[in-house]
Structures
1.
Amino acid sequence: MIHGIEASSGDIVVVMDADLSHPASAIPEMLRRLEANESDFVLGSRYVEGGTIHDEWSVFRKLNSIVPSLMARPLCHLKDPMSGFFAFHRADMPERSRLSPIGYKIALEIFVKGDFQRASEVPIHFSDRQYGESKLSLKEQLNFLRHLARLYAYRLRPGAAS
């Protein structure tokens, strides 16, 4: 995903998972907040007022969404830091050398290692994926824990863990 961000052009970067689980209709509000300088990082969120998830999610699926978000909460004040739908000004992108994501949670990596002072969340309906496969394998869950540990180390001692 970092390669895609680097290859893109324009002053604003919008990242959206390609599985069609995020509504593109939220992009205008995300852009408006960035362009009005209300926010410097905008996240499409299922866990803010007005945000929703697919009605038929199992308890297991809900827990696999909520628990990682709670684990990441001390790193940022975002309610849905696991979201794969976010936008920011290209100028605010952390240097490539500072980024070392493990797995698929790039929003959390960019947010923690960037210098974002005014983040906000746009409510979205998060639906079931239309394409691709779930990333809820044990391997990816372990990758997330490794990634989270690196981010905590980075936050405690910037530059020590990349």
2.
Amino acid sequence: MAKGDQVSATELTAGLREAAREAGIDLIGATTAEPFELREEWGHDQPRELLPSARSVVVAGFCTRYEPRPVASEPGAPRGLFPVYGSRVFEQMERHCWNVVGGYLRERGYAAVEAPEIAVKPAVVRAGLGRYGKHAVVVTRELGSMVMFACVVTDAPLAAENAPVYEETCPKGCTRCIDACPTGALTGGYTLDRSRCITNWLWGEFIPAELRAEQQNRLFGCGECLFACPRNTRVRTRVSYPVPTDTVNDSPELIPLAAGDRDYYDLHIPTFPRRAGFDVMRDNAIVALGNVGDPAAVAALGAVLGAEDSDERLRAYSAWALGRLATERSRELLEAARASERDPAVAAEIEAALAGE
């Protein structure tokens, strides 16, 4: 269909909604391509820089509450954890949403650009699909916060919403998400202190030593605020998806990851967490080993600390983890590293580990 044959904006939008529903997409909406109002958000705020002729931003959402597949640690084989929040489905469903939405619009003669860089939360809110919660995550009527989104920028004249972005809607007396945050990252004003957010750390931000224990054995994501929100308790587990998703379990072994076993990483890490990168996953595994406390990790951590090609962050985390394990062998490895370490930050981590701090 050429643009000259286009139907009304209302009909075009209704057709897109129906196509999305039939393709297994749970939520869909549209907002204008005007610049976004951002308040300390991640993402691109100028849709027309992605597509100069843009008229609309389409937001497609899908449920991320799926059946968990945890595996318990055993002595000698400590395991990490991917919380049940998108790790095994996001990459595949994002691509599916792009294909469905973009395909529908292109078949009708419109330009449609995949937009992973768009600031997705304000796009979702402005499209009328949800509102911000006190945990600074969008809450939808249908799926609570157990939903993730993909965005498409298009020149199609859709029936677009332009809802206010920052409007308080949570019950005034409810503080469940704030109380559930392990690190006090939620301030109570619908805002997030990213420097204290576990999810933010696990994308590669350096974790302060005094807060590393709060990571526990997590490898990617946190979600404690989401799981505490009463609006999410009624969201049902999604049993199937319209595309194949990752079949790995939620609890890969930590020692192979910390040691840098690339084959193990490729086989056992879901597609979405790989966006953080191999080195970041090694970082997270090393901190998790310090928290799990299995002495079987000492040899692998010592190898990382003593390797000339290990970067400073890997060595710093390894020193901290060895200090947490507090075995005779871990102390020997720390003392050996103290004699040769030249990086001041890593040297400070070694000294703190030896001092039991």
